[in-house]
């Protein structure tokens, strides 16, 4: 059964959660959001992906290899887990707005969706399926019975405006209560947001505060991919974009333009999630946004992780 949540209602609930630089929050937005997204049980969990200078995953790291700073202060790492067998919890968001009608984008999104499902483990990993246009629609609730997700997109056609950021914010809220060791939002879209009330910076602050990396999969033809890559090389505007959204949450922005690229992208994405380290630190007592800086004490090591959390 499909459930629809008006995205203007979502935006009203989330308001502003961060500035474009994820700087200090306004008093009003901090007070509103801390009630829901404050650190629980005095422990903050951090999903971290670590690669070397050549892009290869660094396995076998211990607590002694990591350094975590909380608002600039070095923090003790309480625990570290790295287990490829731990279950995944994924919120799969598929763009069904009007812009997806062009150039076979819907077919590419469905192909990417099938490729992602093929990487998950029946009865172990769980996923939920949402589509979005000007509203977020729950097509399938979270389940480990992946067969129930196979036909989730067959009967839907693109229509309406695109509220990508608002939909991501709503999905982050749904995912926060799931129990999987590795959680993520995966958005299949052409990357054109036309009607969101939340900015990329605001959504990334929300997602980061509950430890949800956002992976943006651009399902676009090769000509659009080239244009987006050329645009990414230009100086950044003051407004945030999808690259910022994925980077600030510890996710990634990737392309899915051909069948071969789609399969490879799905495999890399899920494999990255399985190889993440899950670290824990004690939460700060102050009722405020806390910026996190996670590093590995090895030359050329690169870490992707959440950018902060709400203390208190």
Q: In a few lines, what is going on in this structure?
A:
With 312 residues, the chain is an alpha/beta fold. It has 2 domains: 43-75 and 281-312, no CATH class; 85-274, von Willebrand factor, type A domain (Rossmann fold).
What does this structure look like?
- By secondary structure, this protein is an alpha/beta fold.
- The protein folds into two domains: 43-75 and 281-312, no CATH class; 85-274, von Willebrand factor, type A domain (Rossmann fold).
- 29% of the residues lie in helices and 28% in strands.
- It is globular and about 50 Å long.
- The termini are far apart.
- The model is unreliable at 1-40 (pLDDT under 50).
As a percent range, the share of helical residues equals 25-40%
The CATH superfamily of the largest domain turns out to be: von Willebrand factor, type A domain
* Total number of distinct structural domains: 2
Q: What's the Cα radius of gyration?
A: 18 Å
For the largest sheet, list the strands in their spatial order.
1-8-7-6-9-10-11
What does the main sheet amount to? Answer: 7 strands, mixed
Distance between the termini: 38 Å
Strand count: 15
CATH topology of the largest domain, anyone? Rossmann fold
Give the second-level CATH assignment, the architecture of the largest domain.
3-Layer(aba) Sandwich
Beta fraction of the residues? 25-35%
Features of the shown structure:
312 residues, alpha/beta, Rossmann fold, seven-stranded mixed beta sheet, four-stranded antiparallel beta sheet, 8 helices, 15 strands, disordered N terminus
């Amino acid at each position: 059964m499909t459930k629809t949540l008006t995205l203007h209602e979502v935006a009203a609930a989330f308001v502003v959660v961060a500035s474009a630089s994820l700087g200090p929050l306004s008093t009003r937005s901090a007070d509103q959001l801390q009630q829901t997204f404050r650190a629980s049980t005095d422990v903050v969990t951090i999903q971290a992906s670590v690669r070397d200078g050549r892009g290869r995953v660094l396995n076998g790291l211990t607590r002694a290899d990591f350094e975590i700073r909380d608002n600039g202060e070095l923090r003790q790492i309480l625990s570290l887990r790295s287990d490829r067998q731990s279950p995944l919890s994924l919120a799969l968001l598929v763009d069904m707005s009007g812009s997806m009608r062009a150039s076979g984008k819907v077919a590419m999104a469905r192909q990417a969706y099938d490729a992602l499902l093929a990487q998950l483990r029946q009865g172990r990993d769980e996923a939920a399926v949402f589509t979005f246009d000007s509203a977020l629609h729950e097509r399938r609730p979270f389940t480990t019975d992946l067969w129930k997700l196979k036909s989730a997109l067959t009967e839907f056609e693109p229509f309406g405006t695109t509220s990508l950021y608002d939909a991501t914010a709503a999905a982050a809220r749904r995912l926060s209560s799931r129990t999987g060791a590795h959680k993520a939002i995966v958005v299949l879209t052409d990357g054109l947001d036309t009607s969101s009330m939340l900015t990329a910076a605001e959504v990334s602050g929300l997602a980061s505060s509950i430890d949800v990396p956002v992976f943006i999969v651009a399902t676009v033809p090769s000509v659009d991919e080239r244009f987006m890559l050329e645009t990414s090389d230009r100086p950044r505007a003051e407004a945030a974009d999808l690259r910022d959204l994925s980077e600030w949450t510890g996710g990634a922005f990737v392309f899915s333009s051909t069948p071969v690229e789609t399969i490879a992208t799905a495999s890399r994405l899920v494999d990255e999630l399985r190889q993440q380290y899950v670290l824990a630190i004690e939460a700060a007592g102050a009722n405020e946004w806390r910026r996190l800086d996670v590093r590995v004490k090895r030359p050329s090591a690169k870490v992707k992780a959440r950018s902060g959390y709400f203390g208190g």
